[in-house]
Specification:
flat; 118 residues; mainly alpha; 4 helices
Length: 118
């Protein structure tokens, strides 16, 4: 049974080996002329104005997580919309409950002020 997986293991080993060989070839044959201009931070053609280590407000991460949560529901709406006729009334009721729960959650975070930036 294990001999069936030998080709897969060989392909994985060949992939890792090829990656390592290419990294070393680049290290050996690649151009080596570092200078201050090449080693400086590049930020859209402008000089960086702050450190990359600055802290962000927790609100930034809260809004990002809420965006992801409420954006993922669209992923569930597409298959439902495609198979709407086949699902019938049971599918409609199920999706109505789903959307209602999402709207209640959205209203809750809106009232708590989680979407406010100030």
């Amino acid at each position: 049974m294990l001999e069936n997986y030998v080709p897969i293991f060989l392909m994985i080993a060949a992939g890792f080996g090829f990656g390592l060989v290419m990294m070393k070839v680049n290290e050996w044959l690649g151009p080596k002329s570092p200078n201050a201009e090449k080693l400086s931070t590049y930020e859209s053609g402008m000089e960086p104005v702050r450190s990359a280590r600055e802290r962000f407000s927790v609100k930034y991460y809260m809004v990002a997580m809420l965006f992801i949560i409420f954006d993922i529901e669209v992923v569930f709406l597409y298959p439902w919309a495609v198979s709407f006729k086949e699902l019938g009334m049971a599918g409609f009721i199920t999706m109505t409950v789903f959307i209602t729960i999402l709207l209640v959650g959205f209203y809750y975070i809106w009232r708590k002020g989680a979407l406010e930036w100030d």
